[in-house]
Amino acid sequence: MKLFIYNFLFLFKRNRYFYYKTSNTNYTYKHPEYFQELLSAISHNVNKKELSETFKNFLSKKAYVFGKNVDIVFNMDFFNNFKFRNNVKKPAFFNKADVKVPYEIGRLQFLQKVMLHNFLEDNQNPELNFDYLDEIITSENNKIIWNSPMDVAIRMISLIFVKNFINKIDYTNKPSLFTNLDSVISKDFEFVKMNYEKSGNVVGNHYFVELASSLLFIANYDYEDKELDLKSTIDEISKQIKLQFNKELTNFEGSSHYTALMAEALLIIYLSLKSLKRENKLYKKIKEILIVNNYFIKLITNKGELSQIGDNDSGRLFYFQFNEQEPLKLHWLNNLIEEIIPESKSYNHVSENIDKLENFELNNLNNVKHKEIKAFNDDFKHYSFPEFGIFIWRNSKDFFSIRCGDIGQNGVGGHAHYDQLSIECFSNNKWIARDPGTGTYTDDIKTRNKYRSLKYHWGPQVEMSFPQEDAFDCFKLNYMSNGQVLKFDKFNFVGYADFNEKRIYRKVTFSDGVITIQDFSNDVELGKYALWGEENLGIKVEFSEGYKRFT
Prior knowledge:
Elements: H1 2-18, E1 28-29, H2 34-42, H3 48-59, E2 62-65, E3 68-71, E4 76-77, E5 82-83, H4 100-106, H5 110-120, H6 133-138, H7 149-166, H8 175-194, H9 205-220, E6 221-222, H10 226-244, H11 256-275, H12 281-299, E7 301-302, E8 305-306, H13 331-340, E9 354-355, E10 367-369, E11 373-374, E12 381-385, E13 390-394, E14 398-403, E15 423-427, E16 430-433, H14 445-451, E17 461-462, E18 484-488, E19 492-499, E20 502-511, E21 514-520, E22 526-527
Antiparallel strand pairs: 1-6, 2-3, 4-5, 7-8, 9-18, 10-21, 11-21, 12-13, 13-14, 14-15, 15-16, 17-22, 18-19, 19-20, 20-21
């Protein structure tokens, strides 16, 4: 019954999408000022071989999706060999197929690399053919890629970048190509604007990306109601900034890779406002948030790879330099932010110590002491982002972090994992303890729940059963409390969290090149880590190098 009601409400809401027709509004493209700045930034440190391979793939009507090379077909889940019907009536196919696969193909992000390749090549290839864009608009078989307004928004972003490039490549300057592309972009814009995902138990990254895409459109097109749309979009972005970013300016989702996605959305808004000559209060706030999050991303990056705190479904807005074979390497994003906002290179984060232990005596509790970790022989610094819920110690050789804080999305935890008190440690170019990643979402609920479980993270070692949950709980955290920090400074950490109403404390100390970790509880029997993951690339059970990428 629950599944029936869920699908009925989705169908009721989405039915209008399938029969949507564009308005008669006349949109006129106006080449934006931001593009030259963006083009300069994305042309540095380009992997021309990878761009060339993407272009050859494109000519063969193939593209990489979650690391797999597949045909550009818009109604298939190639991972589960599942073909979606032309009238999709539900948002998820639990334990059958993954709607994110056709969504990802329908984003057309590979076109960003195609255009950059052609721009950079001396012998520009005139074989560009966007005829299959008509298939997206007209085919009855592709309605699945209109299910998610956010993914339509990302497609619009990619196609606007294509449009920007067309004005830089002479041989593509064909009236028929221009007309068709404008038609697709304008339909995506009207569709997104009509179907903003601004209601529900969580209003988060979907709505924010949709607003960013709308502002990008406004920065590229003139039309009758442009000023009205501009004002309302800026107002909504300003509201969402307050709702979706913490006081410390981290993102409220509680996910490192969603932090990266939101940084991309912020960058699109920043460039659009600059191009529109709206260097206002919002513009300055976004600049401030980008500077902080650029620093945050770099802090939790090791060996070029961004840690996977919470969910990572590999979504990207700037796809130009993203490498499908190395999906955790997001240095290109840091470079992009620093090219556009040079001040971000010199930012220095200031952390405050915490001391709430008072007279509490941990030794009154049962405890275990885990295997000591040898690290930090050299001096190091400590960093805190308490609203995000992560505390970090690092120098040029060593890295250590622990999760402890509020559950993301204001307690819903849609993109959070059972990782309170979980650690990551990287020392001398080697992982000692590493977050497992995400695995997948709704096509395999068992795998989804494994990768976000306490068992897969380097948190307390306990044998604990959790109540059986149904498929609808795969984007909730029902049996873990917020984490509470009692002490944090350069040499100490103490915090606690409740797991299925069982309270566990974790204490970490740094002294003379040794990290000591102890757990305390009278509510549950504690196990000891005789080994960490030093002999297994830091992996506790299994590892997912990005969405649907299993090792």
